[in-house]
């Protein structure tokens, strides 16, 4: 079905037409329509246009108003102050527009006419290492951006650039070669969660043992370093053992992502090793084009505006003086692959803000090489740090980094307690299922309701609270609506444009109508927190409506149906918005 023009765009068009008629030289000018506290909308653009045309702004505003018909769309319009227009839309126009949205599976949200292909690089754990709280934000923010962009019609290619290469693998592989049973699974129950935990405990044990030996035994250290050379040369036995580490780590990664209610697919996992075959050519292309130069034997790219503490330029080192390749070579090769082979028109890197300088230099290098240009852009969706309640980086009491799986388990336990306390007719199995949905939703929403660039405090007490800006508040609003719809009996939701609306109905309706424009904004600005803020406001407006407007006991049958219609569309919008953030909306809570 075709997208539904919002009330804002329809009103904007009416004002623009009248403005072009009153001031022909301003044809195509933007009336600068905004939501307003004084009316439904305010047009703020006339002041600047009058100034430019050397006209009296109030007179121009009055002429514009005379050219705008009232009735079907606009109920009333008045000139305010030095030339602002206060515009109130008709009740019937609100309901008619919402009815058109309700008739569409996409809630009238348009597809982006200029959609392209975006590669999103997110959720990047390291092989043979435990996932900790620092891995949370990349996964949660990236997954939400995937959903939002796909909903707007973008072709999205997921990439999980896992850390699966480097010198530490020489140590691990050599140790496994000398202790061949260290990765054997001891339980055979096949349980995904247990095998994930078991895989990690095996890897942890092996990593600690190999590190201890590496630090204490010079002969082992020599053998381990020789093994790195074998790995980089592609020696078959070494590669086979390396693959075991990758496979074992994936069992663990996938178990954690499953707990996060996140879909990570094997073909999308292309780690550092996936670009090994391109590294030599990447360096050759950069050196031959003059983008990179040799400095003390290393292949470097220099920048005017990047200097170290000593005032000298700090280069991006693509190849070290010993011939080894750094992260830059891999990242630049990945850009070549994503643009050349995957056809990307945009690259989004969901990476910690502390890596901003690295990516700034990588992107600038790729631009100089011609791999990025006006048609292909790369951006870092940089995120801040997860802090504890004390405002310091989140650590355990012992000062250790918090394991991600422990954090998620605790969130589920806390949420299950909240669900159990409120549950009236849920079985134990349902409480467990809802507890997971509420707990994981709480963790995701706390992250996504904060601008990615900001640090945020991880406070489980606040996250699972039924009050305030939490996912639990939104989930309960959704479940409450489902309860009302179940109790409605023979009364069915139906739009009645002829029925007059109470102030809280109007406020709810106008907010519902802004869903499509909000989605477009969140997609264009890579800002999932704007969607979270919209949904929280929607739930708040619904709460006000519900407390002031009886639904099932409204005065007339038409009013009952109209209010049920508003309830149902609110529920659908909440559910769709929450799903784009990766959060479930249980029918009963």
From TrEMBL:
Coiled coil: none annotated. GO terms for molecular function: ligase activity. Its main location: cytoplasm. It is found in: Cytoplasm. Its EC number is 6.1.1.19. Keywords: Aminoacyl-tRNA synthetase, ATP-binding, Cytoplasm, Ligase, Nucleotide-binding, Protein biosynthesis. Belongs to the class-I aminoacyl-tRNA synthetase family. This is Arginine--tRNA ligase. Residues 474-589 form the DALR anticodon binding domain. The keyword Cell inner membrane does not apply. CDD domains: ArgRS_core. It comes from the Bacteria. InterPro entries: aa-tRNA-synth_I_CS, Arg-tRNA-ligase, Arg-tRNA-synth_N, Arg-tRNA-synth_N_sf, ArgRS_core, DALR_anticod-bd, Rossmann-like_a/b/a_fold, tRNAsynth_Ia_anticodon-bd. The gene is argS. It catalyses: tRNA(Arg) + L-arginine + ATP = L-arginyl-tRNA(Arg) + AMP + diphosphate. Monomer. Residues 9-89 form the Arginyl tRNA synthetase N-terminal domain. A motif ('HIGH' region) lies at residues 125-135.
């Amino acid at each position: 079905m075709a997208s539904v023009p919002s009330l804002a765009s329809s009103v904007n068009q009416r004002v623009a037409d009248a403005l072009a008629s009153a001031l022909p030289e301003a044809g195509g000018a933007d009336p600068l329509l905004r939501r307003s506290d004084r009316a439904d909308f305010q047009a703020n653009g006339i002041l600047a246009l009058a100034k430019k045309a050397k006209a009296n702004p109030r007179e121009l505003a009055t002429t514009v108003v005379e050219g705008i018909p009232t009735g079907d769309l606009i109920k009333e319009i008045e000139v305010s102050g030095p030339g602002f227009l206060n515009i109130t839309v008709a009740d019937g126009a609100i309901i008619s527009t919402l009815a058109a949205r309700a008739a569409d599976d996409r809630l009238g949200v348009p597809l982006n006419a200029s959609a392209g292909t975006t590669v999103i690089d997110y959720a990047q754990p390291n092989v043979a290492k435990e996932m900790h709280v620092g891995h949370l934000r990349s996964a949660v923010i990236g997954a939400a951006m995937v959903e939002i962009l796909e909903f707007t019609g973008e072709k999205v290619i997921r990439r999980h650039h896992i850390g699966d290469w480097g010198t530490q693998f020489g140590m691990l592989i050599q140790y496994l070669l000398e202790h061949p049973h260290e990765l054997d699974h001891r339980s055979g129950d096949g349980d995904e969660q247990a095998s994930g935990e078991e895989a990690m405990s095996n890897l942890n044990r092996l990593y600690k043992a190999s590190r201890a030996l590496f630090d204490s035994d010079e002969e082992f250290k020599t053998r381990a370093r020789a093994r790195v050379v074998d790995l980089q040369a592609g020696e078959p036995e070494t590669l086979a053992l390396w693959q075991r580490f990758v496979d074992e780590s994936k069992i663990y990664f996938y178990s954690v992502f499953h707990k996060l209610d996140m879909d990570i697919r094997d073909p999308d996992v292309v780690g550092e090793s996936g670009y090994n075959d391109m590294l030599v050519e990447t360096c050759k292309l950069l050196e031959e084009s003059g983008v990179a130069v040799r400095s003390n034997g290393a292949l470097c790219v220099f920048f005017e505006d990047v200097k170290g503490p000593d005032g000298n330029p700090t280069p991006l080192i693509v190849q070290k003086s010993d011939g080894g390749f750094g992260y830059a070579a891999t990242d630049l090769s990945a850009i070549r692959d994503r643009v050349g082979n995957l056809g990307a028109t945009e690259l989004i890197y969901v990476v910690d803000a502390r890596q901003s300088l690295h990516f700034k230099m990588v992107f600038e290098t790729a631009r100089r090489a011609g791999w990025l240009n006006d048609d292909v852009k790369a951006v870092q969706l940089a995120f801040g740090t997860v802090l504890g309640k004390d405002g310091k980086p989140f650590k355990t009491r012992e000062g250790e980094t918090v394991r991600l799986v422990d954090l998620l388990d605790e969130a589920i336990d806390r949420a299950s307690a909240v669900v159990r306390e409120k549950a009236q007719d849920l079985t134990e199995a349902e409480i467990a299922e809802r507890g997971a949905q509420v707990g994981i939703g709480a963790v995701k929403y706390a992250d996504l309701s904060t601008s990615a660039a900001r640090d945020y405090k991880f406070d489980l007490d606040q996250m699972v609270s039924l009050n305030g800006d939490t996912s639990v508040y939104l989930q309960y609003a959704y479940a409450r609506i489902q309860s009302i719809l179940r109790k409605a009996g023979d009364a069915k939701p139906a739009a009645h444009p002829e029925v007059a609306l109470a102030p809280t109905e109007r406020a709810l309706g106008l907010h519902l109508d802004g869903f499509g424009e909000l989605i477009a904004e969140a997609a264009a600005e890579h800002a999932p927190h704007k969607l979270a803020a919209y949904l929280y406001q929607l739930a708040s407006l619904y709460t006000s409506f519900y407390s002031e407007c009886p639904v099932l006991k409204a005065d007339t049958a038409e009013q009952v149906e109209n209010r049920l219609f508003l309830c149902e569309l609110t529920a659908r919008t909440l559910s769709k918005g929450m799903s784009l953030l990766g959060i479930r909306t249980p029918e009963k809570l």
